[in-house]
Amino acid sequence: MVQTAPDPKLIRMIALAHSWLEEIKAGILMKDIAKRYGWQTLMVRQRIQLAFLSPAIVGAILDGRQPEGLTLTQLVTSDIPLDWDEQWAALGFDAAP
């Protein structure tokens, strides 16, 4: 079963994760990113993995077609596989495109 509406918190965090990844590539430290948000470094570390989601999964999330139980909390507390095909199964999607 899929949601029918996009999750704004999840979408915002995916966008932030991509932004943070670019900052890290430019030499900004995770601890400095965390400090900017008043967070612990662990919170940034948990969320940065969203930048490595499959583009098809990101598209599904943007369209609100993610599995019903897929939440930001679930994503940031899970070990998301780097392999895009494995991500589909691990995150509860029916099948990879």
UniProtKB/TrEMBL annotation:
This is Resolvase family site-specific recombinase. It comes from the Bacteria.
